[in-house]
Amino acid sequence: MLTKKEFGKWGENLAAEFLKKKNYKILAKNIYSKYGEIDLLCQLQGQIICVEVKTRTSNKIDFGILAVTCSKIKKIILTWHWYRSQHSKLPAFMRIEAVVVMVDKNKISYRHFLEINFIDT
């Protein structure tokens, strides 16, 4: 039995593989700052994308996406500013997306939410 944290990390790895199949390049995982965390930092067609991953055992999609609150988005933005201050070659523009990984018995499914927010940093 996985702990909640282990279950979340497992879901993040599944989401990374899901995104790779959609031609996303994974630049970094689990970027932590004093402001918050970015689960996956990706690139697609030259655009930088911060991806929030939610892993749920219910097949009700709302449970995952509703956890991506305004407060969570703000933490992602602040963490992005902090990370970019250390990696100045990254473009100033990024976008936020979410992937909800749903585990129902032995079936895994994904819901990809594009363009949760555009931020001009």
Structure write-up:
This protein is α+β, with helices and mostly antiparallel strands. The protein has a single domain, classed as 3-Layer(aba) Sandwich (Trna Endonuclease, Chain: A, domain 1). Helix content is 31%, strand content 43%. It contains three helices and five strands. It has a five-stranded mixed β-sheet with strand order 1-2-3-4-5. Strand 1 and strand 2 form a beta hairpin. The radius of gyration is 14 Å and the shape is globular. The N and C termini lie far apart (41 Å). The model has no long low-confidence stretch (mean pLDDT 87).
**Overall residue-averaged pLDDT value:** 87
Helical residues, percent:
25-40%
Indicate the proportion of strand residues.
35-45%
CATH uppermost class: Alpha Beta
Describe the largest sheet: 5 strands, mixed
The shape, in one word, is globular
CATH T-level fold name: Trna Endonuclease, Chain: A, domain 1
The assigned CATH architecture is 3-Layer(aba) Sandwich
Number of helices: 3
Poorly predicted runs are none
